[in-house]
Structures are given as C-alpha cells and as structure tokens.
From TrEMBL:
Domain of life of the organism encoding this protein: Bacteria
Protein name: DegT/DnrJ/EryC1/StrS family aminotransferase
Pfam family, one: DegT_DnrJ_EryC1
The keyword ATP-binding is annotated on this UniProt entry: no
Required cofactor(s): pyridoxal 5'-phosphate
Assigned protein family: Belongs to the DegT/DnrJ/EryC1 family.
Species annotation: Plantactinospora siamensis
Presence of the UniProt keyword Transferase in the record: yes
Length: 374
C-alpha cells in the first residue's frame, strides 16, 4: 500500500542516532540542547523539546495556566489532542467553525465565542497552511487570552514573511513520522516569552525547580530541587533529538520537495471533474504536510474505498473533534460547526511525502481520474 505520509531517513540520520547511542548521554544531554537551538533557529523563538505533539499541547496549556473554570476556543478540524489536552486540565472547550477553503479556525467564529472565561484560543495550521494569526491576535487581545498555535503540520511555514513559531504566544510541534519532520515520537513548544517558556520547561520535567534564586529552601544542600507545581515526565531523549537535528538540516529540502509535489498535483488534477483542490493564500508559504482534496457529489466514501482497494493509502483528516464519543458524552452535539462538518464529509488526503516518486504520484492521479470519470 502506498502510504499517505511517511518519513524520509538518510544514512546521516542513522549515523547521528548511532553516535548518540554510543555517547555518555541517552537522555537530557547535549543533543537535547542542540536540537532545541536548531529548532529555535527555524521557529524564530526559543523551544523546549517534549515527547510528542500531544505532550506539547498539554504542556502549552499548562504553561498558559489553563485550568478548571477556564474556556479554550479551538477548531474542530484537527486531531483530537488539540482539544482533549485542554479538557484533561479541567477546561471547557468551545469549538468555533472553520473557513470553508483553508479549513483553518475562522477568526470571526472564534470572536463570537470568546469572553471573560477564555484562557486560550488555539488555531491549527491545517495541512501546513498557517491560520489567520493577525486576525486571531485581535480576538485574543480583546479578552486578554493566550494565543496558541498547534503547528503539528506546519514547521517551516511562514505567514506574511514571519515563521510559524513567532505568530502565537505558544506554538506546538509534532515530529511523528508522517509529519514534515520526524524524531519517531517527539514534539516541541516554542515561546518568545521567557516566563511562558520556563513554565513549559518545568512542566516537561515534573515541575522540578533547580535554579537557586527560585528555591524556597536555597540552603538545603547541593542536591536539593523542589516541585512547586506538579508536572509530568515529557522529556525527549538525546537519541531522538540527534535524529531531530539531522532531519532539521534537510527541512528546506523537505519544504521544497513537498511544494513541488503539491504544484504537480495541482497541475495534473486541474481538469478532473468532481474534485476541489486545496487553496493557498498569497501571504502564506506553507511546508505542506497534507494534500487535502474535496470529493464532491457525495462520493468521498466510494473514492476512499476504491483508492485503498487500488493500493493507494488515502486518509481522511479529520472527523470533527467533537464527534469523538468522549466529547459526545460531555454533551457536544453534531451540527455545531456546519462548515467543518461539510468539509469533513468531502475531505480526502492524497499521498504526500518527501520520497514520493513522480511515477507513484502519476498512479495516484490516474486512479483518481479513473474513479471520478466513471
Ligand atoms: C499529529 C498531531 C497532533 C499530535 O501529535 P502526536 O505527536 O501524534 O502526539 C496534534 N495536533 C495535530 C493537528 C496533529 O496533526
């Protein structure tokens, strides 16, 4: 089966991991520090590496102080962890609808839902295309909320010339193998504000405080460290950070290759009937994680089945988050975000990854053309 996404691994990646394995540090060593610095250079803000993208969101919400009594406004067109990690901290999630073309959080819909209880607004850069951060910033400023970017899809993307990582107060990344960059499992939180970044760093390491000026009992002894607020062990080991730095060295290539494949899909599919292709705003330069098309005329389920039967691993991204039974059990009802639900009903992700060959891409196009021409 041709996958819809997969990692690109070179000998340099393998050697970097082997070298880490033979070193003194398997975790919490120099390769973590180096990966965080390498990431910061791309994200435009200091970064804290964590164990995965879900942990990154949990950490970002904890750093933003999200807790019981708070509300978090976000998009339903995302992987469940954008919303579930806020619920796990005791917040109520309010789902605002998306723009019909980009499937990103609609700033006007978010503006309708924010109020005095809103602690954070979380946008998702769907498929790698940054959300409308200038408009979202006005929304969070109006109520003093924290702006969070779930950029699991979008490392290396830019918005109005600014890198993803500088557009929100806190930005989260995922380095799962299907994403734009991988560390197997992995993630990161970026924040320009040292206070927010410090809270994220502490949450990632069980809440441990070591720096002498912050200790309540500074004279306890050289061994002493304190927990002031509870955290988790969300650290990313040196082994995986070594892979991350090696991968980051190729991020420009990844971005260019994905852009070329997207351009090729756009051209080859332009005249296929019953299909709508993804859009790109002029002021955005995405690192394209997904190539999401819309299958019109109620044929998505049929096309999904026939593509898979032909050995082409198409995917659907995503069922609206509040359709998950855990949200339904909390009282969330279908119909809440009609634009997102209409998008979901037609959405299909075609294979897109760095090592996708043009001949495999041609086969995807020919198969889809054959099905839709029926
Ligand atoms: C992948 C993903 C996550 C979760 O990342 P993991 O590393 O799989 O935990 C969160 N949000 C979005 C939008 C994602 O695509």
């Amino acid at each position: 089966m041709l996958p819809y996404g997969r990692q690109s691994i070179t000998d340099a990646d393998v050697e970097a991991v082997v070298e880490a394995l033979r070193s003194d540090w398997l975790t919490t060593g120099p390769r973590v520090t180096r990966f965080e610095a390498d990431l910061a250079a791309v994200a435009g803000a200091p970064c804290v590496a964590v164990s995965n993208g879900t942990a990154a969101l949990h950490t970002a919400y904890a750093a933003a102080g999200v807790g019981p009594g708070d509300e978090v406004v976000t998009t339903p067109m995302t992987f469940v962890s954008t919303a579930s990690t806020a619920v796990m901290l005791g917040a109520r999630v309010r789902f605002a609808d998306v723009e019909s073309d980009t499937a990103n959080l609609d700033p006007a819909a978010a503006a309708d839902l924010v109020g005095p209880r809103t602690r954070a607004v979380t946008a998702v850069d769907y498929a790698g295309h940054p959300a409308e951060y200038d408009d979202l910033r006005k929304v969070t400023d109006s109520v003093g909320a924290t702006l969070i970017a779930d950029a699991a899809h979008a490392i290396g993307s830019t918005y109005r010339g600014r890198p993803v990582g500088t557009l929100a107060d806190l930005t989260t990344f995922s380095f799962f193998p299907t994403k734009n960059l991988t560390t197997a499992e992995g993630g990161a939180v970026a924040a320009a504000d040292p206070e927010l970044l410090g809270r994220a760093a502490r949450f990632r390491s069980l809440g441990m405080v070591r720096d002498r000026d912050s200790l309540r009992e500074p004279d306890e002894g050289g061994w002493h460290q304190e927990v002031h607020e509870f955290g988790l062990n969300y650290r990313l080991p040196d082994l995986l950070c070594a892979l991350g730095s090696a991968q980051l060295a190729r991020l420009d290539h990844f971005k260019a290759r994905r852009a070329a494949l997207v351009e090729r899909y756009n051209e080859l599919l332009a005249d296929v009937p019953g299909l709508r292709l993804p859009v790109r705003r002029d002021w955005v330069e995405p690192t394209r994680h997904l190539y999401p098309v819309r299958i019109l005329a109620g044929r998505r389920r049929e096309v999904y089945g026939r593509m898979r039967a032909a050995g082409i691993g198409v995917q659907v991204n995503y069922i609206p988050a509040y359709w998950h039974p855990a949200f339904a059990d909390l009282g969330y009802r279908r119909g809440m975000c009609p634009v997102a639900e209409a998008f979901y009903a037609e959405q299909l992700s075609l294979p897109l990854f760095v090592d996708l060959s043009e001949s495999d891409q041609d086969r995807v196009v020919a198969t889809l053309r054959g099905i839709l021409g029926d």
